[in-house]
Description:
The chain is of the alpha/beta class.
Amino acid sequence: MHPLESQLDSFQSAQRRQALEQLTAVSSFPPPTNWLNLHSHTFYSYNAYGYSPSHFAYLAKQRGLALAGIVDFDVLDGLDEFLDACRLLNLKGIVSLESRVFVPEFADRVINSPGEPGIAYHMGVGFPRAVRHPLLDRMRRTAEQRNRDLVARVNAFTAPVTLDYDHDVLPLTPAGNATERHICAAYAKKGTPEFWRSKLGDCPAEPAKLEALIRAKTMKQGGVGYVRPDAGTFPLMTEMNQFVREAGAIPTLAWLDGTSEGEKCMEALFASGAAALNIIPDRNLSSPQHIQNLCNVVSLAEQHGFPVIVGTEMNAPGNKFVDDFNHPVLQELLPVFLKGAHIAYAHSALQRELGRGYLSDWAKQFGADRNRIFETLGRELHPQMTTNQILAKVRAL
């Protein structure tokens, strides 16, 4: 690793930018492959390796990714930094946001949040710029309050080893958007191995495994800190879809593995107001049934004209930097994934520069040809183009 690379994860934005500029000036990058990762979390929510948006962009360029994308929970704090880094590196990049929503029509069925009927992880893909929006502000506030309430409940169990949320948790984040994983890391640092054995019955030597055990035993179902979410815990899916559209992005379903009662009713979910589908491929290669479910949902997305967005999350230790697209199944599906990525990239660029994104009235006039046109533009556009150059590509259609 180049000595400057560690500075890419500084909590000081000026240090990150300076390090990226210096690294870009002295680095030789390989030509782009056809691999991609459009779903990496950053340290603005939680990245298991501490990667900032700049660091992820640099590594994506260094490893020859054709396209790269970040996604954070409840915030767009990394958007400007990531798109600026992609422009500097000439890397095709998109920015997305993930949250949880309530789906009234599925109130009695688990969707993609295990054990939580009616609750769904949901996304907006291809945000053209950072925005202020009442729902975004509300999501940030309610997420913080959930965290503080969670810490209070877990503290009652772990006393005398307790956390001060402001002192122990918030300093682990660059912009105050802490997650359960930050809280687990803070707890793991405070307790001794003997203490955690007495509370949890075990204390793995590896920090990541200890943090996972703390989370499983205290914050997930059956744990002292767990409170089952209900209709009022998260925004409605319709509310989030409206926010995403107003912000210029694409409302996107998040698919887990096709085994839940909710995900066995994908036709209803495809009709719920989204326009794209997100998949984490790597976790769907564990069995023949999971592979079949993956192939089925990709086929269904193609039938509905939904671009398919894929990537690995890197929000837990051991997550890959990029999916293994040499795997026979992923190799076969890669053309669909690349098509979805180029559509999302074209949307992001056209919405930002011209106000002509994938869901615009201008785009809708192409009807059944919309995906083909956006895929073509996504392949031809690049981050260092001027607005006039982008407009020329559009006029040449």
